[in-house]
């Protein structure tokens, strides 16, 4: 079934303005699907997911398990977390960076009432992304010269860096999930097999970056969410670099897979399991759900790109042309705000949400009124922190908004 573009646009607009819940949609009734524990893995599209979870939770005035104003969470010290709004209330969402430590996570987000999920990425794609992001390619070029090809850069780096796990570049997904401290006395392959079983028993769903939209639709179905709850805007997408986009040789692919032995086996197992979940759900029915979501997301992207000027709470809205040559929208609708929220830096959102959760009006005022109230304070604090670290200062609030 194909939904007309106008109907989809109307549905998206109405749903976003209603806080993500179109009339007639039903959500899950299970207590387990009311709370979400997301284990954030590096370089797997998680910045995009976290903003989506933040927006979902803020709309519903959820209690977030947060390390106040921080990028990471230390689940070992619960006393340092932002407390729930009222005594006796539980946390509803945890989605900050942090090593997965089940013995502590279970205290913060009890398994009986929380849906546990994480996301993996194909090991070759993940290695290439992490290799560049963490400065390894830059280091190799400084050592061997700017004419060094990307493939040779990776080859030489792998030769120079041995070890089962190397920082956040080799088997880093396994590191994020707690492998380094898991049954270390076992032989490697048995340890990997047991670790996969362990993660399988802990997670209700393991998503796959390379199948992002399918994964989100499965999450929606398992959580009993609405399609509008999984709309997203891509974040932390690197600029295309011709040098880095060239196909790498089969020999290098094999070399990467040999080194990414844990992440590769995790990926193979859970990618296959996603297929099993789809087959159990009904593949034809599931593919219809994915098509509906892709159509709605396309409309949402178009609305974000063509209808809105990303909101800057520190600037007076008017009808004059802005710096980019387009008119500034004087009517700042809920969908504009959702678009801006979804591409705002997560450090800013963490500050905003920390203040929201501690404020008296979190559950009384509209979400975006409160968001605007604390956004500027968070932005100023970020500029001050940046200045104190001795790195370039942002010149305008718009610099704190990231595009797709």
Descriptive notes:
By secondary structure, this protein is mainly α. It is built from 16 helices and four strands. It has a four-stranded parallel sheet. The longest helix has 25 residues, at 283-307. It is globular, with a radius of gyration of 22 Å. The relative contact order is 0.14.
List keywords for this structure.
single chain; 404 residues; mainly alpha; 4-stranded parallel beta sheet; disordered N terminus; disordered C terminus
Number of strands: 4
- Fraction of residues in helices? 40-55%
Query: N-to-C terminal Cα separation, in Å?
Result: 29 Å
CA-based gyration radius = 22 Å
* Beta-strand residue fraction: under 5%
Report the biggest beta sheet as strand number plus sense, adding barrel if it closes: 4 strands, parallel
Computed structural class: mainly alpha
Provide the succession of SSEs. Answer: HEHEHEHHHHHEHHHHHHHH
How many helices in DSSP terms?
16
Task: Give the overall shape.
Answer: globular
Uncertain parts: 1-7, 20-29, 308-332, 390-404
How are the strands of the biggest sheet laid out side by side? 2-1-3-4
Mean pLDDT: 78
